[in-house]
Structures are given as C-alpha cells and as structure tokens.
Amino acid sequence: MMSWTRPPNFFRGIYPSSYWSCWLEQNVLFSFDDGPGPNTKSLLDLSLEYGIKFAFFILPEQAQKYPEIVRRIVKDGHILGSHFSQHRHHIMDTKTTFLNSLNQSVEKIENISQNTIQYSRVPYGRLLPWQDGWINQVGYTHVFWSLDSKDYNFEPSEKVLKRIQNNIQANDIVLFHDGESVHPQIVQSVE
Ligand SMILES: [Zn+2]
Predict the structure, then answer these.
(1) What's the gap in Å between 124 CA and the centre of ligand 1?
(2) Ligand 1 centre distance from Cα of residue 74 (Å)
(3) 16-148+162-190: which CATH architecture?
(4) Residue 127, class by beta-carbon neighbours within 10 Å (0-12 exposed, 13-18 middle, 19+ buried)?
(5) Ligand 1 is an ion; residues with CB less than 5 A from it
(6) Which of the residues in the chain have pLDDT under 70?
(7) Where are the domains of the chain?
(8) pTM of the shown model
C-alpha cells in the first residue's frame, strides 16, 4: 500500500471488508493518522470553517497527551478510529497479538473519548487479507485510503498540494498525518 499515490483498484477485491472510499454525506474524506498532535486543533478549526468532517486514526499514547482534543474530535462529529496500540508493523502477528493490539487501543481511546469506536486503520496500511477479516469478526471496519498525499516525505507543501489537486477524485479518502512529527505545513496543504 506504501508507494502508490492511488492504490490499484484490485486491492478492493482482496480486502472486501475494508472501506476504500468516502462513506459520509460529503464529496471526499480527509483522514489523519498518528495523532492527535500539535496541528490537530488547527485542523479541527479548519473543518468548522469548511463544514466538512474528517477521520482521525489515533494512537493511545497520543490520545493520553491530548485528551481534550480527542473529546473535541467526537464533539465536532468527526470519525474517531484506532491506529492500533503501537505504531509498528502487524503483518507477522498471530491473531491473538493482532487483536490484542486493536482491542487494547480501542479500550484506551474509548476511555478517553467516552465514545464507541467503530473504525480502525493499521499502521503503514500494511494489512494481510485475512487480518481484514479478523478486524471484521470483532466488529470493527478497517479503513484504507484511495489517495496518498505522501505528506510524510516532507516535500515542499506546494508539491503535496499539487499531488492532491492532480489526482483527487469524487469519494476519495485522502491520507494525511497529524502526529508529533508532521509536515510543518500540513494545515495549509489541507486548506
Ligand atoms: Zn501511521
């Protein structure tokens, strides 16, 4: 999933339980991984200005640092999802280890947010097809993306913006990051 700007469509058939396109009543869904972080509040303010909802796939460690931001994500009506317990690769995990990582992250995030978690996104988007099924079995939906902003490459923000403008299609889920070490102009790129 890593290197494509747009993951090939055949992946949708390999991961039938996952979401690949915007399921909300809006044209596109901007999604943010690894947060909350120092820029999340500005992103929330931006969403109010534009009247759109975002999706945040958060880490429990970050949620503990920014509990009031986590609660605001819920209060403002955004999607709050789990990015698993630690930001590591999960493809070598046994089913028990994999689901422990998911369930423990959900428990911590639910305690902080006082909200039920329905969605998850595995770190790096590195998911095996049967793991997609495991997530589904325990009642959550895995969410991929259809357009990668590649904001993690720390290119000039104009380049990230151009990539989005040149590639975006209706119903896209766009991947961004709002963790501790984010692109310095992520907010401007999103705007
Ligand atoms: Zn991540």
Answers:
(1) 5
(2) 20
(3) Alpha-Beta Barrel (3.20)
(4) buried
(5) 33-34, 123
(6) 1-2, 181-191
(7) 16-148+162-190
(8) 0.95
